């Protein structure tokens, strides 16, 4: 099938020609349209392809699905807070989505304030009298996620990171205690590992959750309630949360080949109260028969563990690069160059 390609307005070409590297990271107004975004981050002018608006440059692709909250960033699905909407021949991007989703994925310097240490706390979900999800054949989530956490720990330690597990046995652990331990251990990254479940046994795939910025809805809702407006401790790390979640989701999808359900937003307790950048990963649906069989296999557990490890390592690396870039003079920094290491 031939994609229908339309250039988004004449102004796109004119504006893109005057692109200034990393402009959005300076004191100038942030881009509010996709043409401005393309200009600021040196993408070619946006083009329409079927139901998508696509921005491309070497090594990077952003594809916004029209009238939905779906953004494909380098082929990884990222859910926005609000859809891009038509605006005078261009497309308007929600300001919070730019600041807390798109910018952290395009400009490593927005991560310069994230904790830069190398202590990773892994949180295997559930435990003890809380089995979590249970497969049709009786496999329990609490057992598999502990096995996964131990495998990820081994991989990360091999890469030189310090890793702690919130639980190392089949113990019940309150959410509050999991967060407290992450704080006590001065975690730089907190990743909670879970398996999904759904009444519809056909449900499948991988998803990762991070906290929405204050004033933004969770992925399953389009309107705000009182909780959505509150600023939580976890909002200290909005940019880093988005980056960590993106790399985890990318790592999981690439390592397993599983269906990409996307980087989503939820106000889970652990994400609200996290003392550092944090994410909750849902690695497969334990309620799905095929996934249940896969989760019994050593090589598949190894793939998931590799995906989680790859994601955490990519995040730690980019934060390190962000701090290096921030230490240089702003005039000499180059967001497009650093961004290629995503
Ligand atoms: Zn769970």
Cα-atom radius of gyration: 20 Å
* Bound small molecules, deduplicated: zinc ion
Spatial arrangement of strands, main beta sheet: 1-2-3-4-5-6
Mean pLDDT: 88
Written overview of the protein:
This protein is of the alpha/beta class and 342 residues long. The protein folds into 2 domains: 102 residues, Copper Amine Oxidase, Chain A, domain 1 (2-Layer Sandwich); 206 residues, 3-Layer(aba) Sandwich (Aminopeptidase). The chain is 36% helix and 20% strand. The strands form 3 sheets. A 6-stranded antiparallel β-sheet has the order 1-2-3-4-5-6. The longest helix has 30 residues. The N terminus and C terminus are likely disordered. It binds zinc ion (ZN).
Task: Draw up the topology in text.
Elements lengths: L4 E3 L2 H8 L16 H7 L6 E3 L2 E6 L2 E6 L4 E4 L2 E4 L5 E3 L2 E3 L2 H12 L12 E6 L16 H18 L3 E4 L9 H10 L4 E8 L9 E5 L15 H4 L8 H19 L3 E6 L3 H5 L4 E8 L3 H6 L3 H30 L7 H5 L3
Parallel strand pairs: 9-10, 9-11, 11-14, 12-13
Antiparallel strand pairs: 1-2, 2-3, 3-4, 4-5, 5-6, 7-8, 12-14
Helix pairs in contact: 1-2, 3-7, 4-10, 7-10
Bound molecules: zinc ion.
The site of zinc ion has 5 residues, from loops.
């Amino acid at each position: 099938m031939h994609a229908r390609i339309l250039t988004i307005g004449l102004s796109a070409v004119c504006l893109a020609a005057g692109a200034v590297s990393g402009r959005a990271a300076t004191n100038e107004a942030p881009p509010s349209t996709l043409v401005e975004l393309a200009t600021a981050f040196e993408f070619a002018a946006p083009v329409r392809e079927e139901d998508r608006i696509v921005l491309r440059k070497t090594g990077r692709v952003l594809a916004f699905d029209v009238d939905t909250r779906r953004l494909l960033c380098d082929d990884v699905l990222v859910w926005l807070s609000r859809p891009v909407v038509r605006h005078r021949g261009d497309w308007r991007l929600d300001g919070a989505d730019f600041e807390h989703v798109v910018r952290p994925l395009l400009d490593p310097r927005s991560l310069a304030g994230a904790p830069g240490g190398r202590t990773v706390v892994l949180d295997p979900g559930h435990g003890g009298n809380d089995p979590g999800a249970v497969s049709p054949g009786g496999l329990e989530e609490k057992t598999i996620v502990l096995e996964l956490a131990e495998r990820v720990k081994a991989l990360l330690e091999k890469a030189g990171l310090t890793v702690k597990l919130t639980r190392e046995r089949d113990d019940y652990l309150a959410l509050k205690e999991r967060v407290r331990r992450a704080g006590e251990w001065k975690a730089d990254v907190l990743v909670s590992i879970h398996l999904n479940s759904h009444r519809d046994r056909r449900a499948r795939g991988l998803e990762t959750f991070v906290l929405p910025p204050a004033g933004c809805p969770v992925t399953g809702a389009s309107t705000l309630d009182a909780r959505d407006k509150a600023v939580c401790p976890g909002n200290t790390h909005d940019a880093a949360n988005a980056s960590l979640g993106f790399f985890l989701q990318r790592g999981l999808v690439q390592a397993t080949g599983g269906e990409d359900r996307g980087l989503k937003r939820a106000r889970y307790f652990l994400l609200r109260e996290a003392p550092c950048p944090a994410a909750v990963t849902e690695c497969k649906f334990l309620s799905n028969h095929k996934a249940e069989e896969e989760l019994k296999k050593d090589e598949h557990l190894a793939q998931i563990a590799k995906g989680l490890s790859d994601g955490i390592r990519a995040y730690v690396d980019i934060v390190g690069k962000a701090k290096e870039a921030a230490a240089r003079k702003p005039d000499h920094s180059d967001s497009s160059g650093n961004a290629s290491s995503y």
